[in-house]
Amino acid sequence: MKICIHFDSFKDYSNIRYGQNILNLLTSYGFKIEKYNDCEPINKLFFIDNFEKIWKDFDKKYGNTFLFKGNFPLNFKGMISWSKNLQQNNNTTCGINLWLNVNKNYPINNIIDFSDELFFISEAVYGYISNEIYDPMYGVTNIKQLEKCKYPDYVKRRAGRYEVSSDGTKSYHIKGGVYNGIKDLMWINYFASSYINEDDFTLLENNNIIKNGVKFRITEKHDDEILCEPEFLEKLKRKIGIQWFWQNPKECELKTPNFDKSEITQ
After folding, report:
1. Residues 85, 266: contact at Cβ < 8 Å?
2. Alpha-carbon distance 160 to 136, whole Å?
3. Which of 63, 182, 189, 220 is least surrounded, with the fewest CB atoms within 10 Å of its CB?
4. What is the pLDDT averaged over residues 218-240?
5. 177: left (phi over 0), alpha (psi -120 to 50) or beta
C-alpha cells in the first residue's frame, strides 16, 4: 500500500538551510536517497557528501524541482518543488511530496512522527497524510481497490477523475488547493497558524497541538473506508468551515488565509 505525504508552503526551498534540514530528517528516520534528478527519469546517483553542491546546482532563477528516490528502509519517492521571484499576485505554491510503499510490518507511527517533524521544518501552511486510494494527488489509479470501495463515485469526484473521449485515454484533473479550497479532509490533516488564527476556522475537538500548528487525525487506520464516506466528511468540513474547502457544487464564497509569501515574491 502506498502512503502519501503532501505539504504546501511559501518558502524558498532553494535555500540550503531547508535542503539540509530535510535531508537530515530523512536520514534520521533511516531513509537513504539513492538517485535524484530535476525531471523523470530519476537516474543520477546521489552521494550525501555532495549534497550541498547538488542543492546549489538546482538553484534556478524562478525555481526548480528536486526529485529523489530510494529503497531503504522501504521503497520511496519524493519531490521538493519551489518557485521564487514571483509577482505578489501569483498563486504558485511550493511543496513537498513523498510516496511510500509501506508493508504491513512497517510501524505506521514512524511515518506519522516523521510527517510531524517535516511539517515543522518545511514551515508548511497545510498538509496531509493519505492512503493512495483516497488521495487526490494520485487520482484513482487502483481500479481494483476502487471497485471494492463503498463510495466509488465520491472517490472519483474527489480525485477529479475524467476520461478524454476523443482518444479514449484516461486523464486526471485535481480539484482544490490552498487558493481555491482545500481538496478534502484526509486521514491525517495539518494546518498552520495562517489557518487556525482565522476567526471562522473552527478547530475540531480531537486536534493535536504540534509544532507550527495543529494535526487532526480522522481515523485510527489509514485505509478505513469511512475516509471516503461523503456524509461523514461533509459533516467534519462544515464543523471546520465549508468556506475553506473546494466545493462541488459551489455553495458559498471560498476563503483563503493571508499567506506570508515574502520569501518567494519580488
Report:
1. yes
2. 7
3. 220
4. 89
5. left
Give pairs for 195-204: CB < 8 Å, separation 24+. 195/125, 195/126, 195/244, 195/257, 197/257, 198/255, 198/257, 200/241, 200/243, 200/255, 201/240, 201/241, 201/244, 202/239, 202/240, 202/241, 203/240, 204/236, 204/239, 204/240
| pLDDT tens readout for residues 84-98 | 999 988 999 999 999
- What pLDDT sits at residue 215? 97
* Residue linked to cell 530535476: 38
